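Curious: explain these tokens?
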Amino acid sequence: MSNLSTVGDRDSWRCWLCDEPVDPGASVNSDLGPSVDLGATTSKKAKKPAAGTERLAHRACNTRKGAVAPVVPWSPDLFVVDPAPIVATVERLGRKGGREVVARCSSRADADQAAAWLVDRLSRLAPGLAVTTQVEPGGGQFLLVLRAA
């Protein structure tokens, strides 16, 4: 297991779950204090987390994830319809590759904004997974497609 400073420096002191800053000087007993999450992603069949999945998280985010499946929220500043769960999508693309439709948007501008946000967010959530986004018109809406490179 890596030490907290090493993981924090690598993750730029941002919580992998909520994407908010983590104060490196905060008490590890504080809800907003730093902690190392040892099992960021696990499959239902796996008995233990994949190697190398240590990620920085707030203590409260890490604790909450232990009780329920992790949820990485879409930005409330985006206008997206039917957004796909980000963690499950990243796990599938990491295992199988390919492409997935992850959201629908009413305008091209909304879809472009969501695409830029998603690539930026995934660069911190899953730095080892190379992804690209594509906006495709369809049915009077714009589909946001995520593709594993």
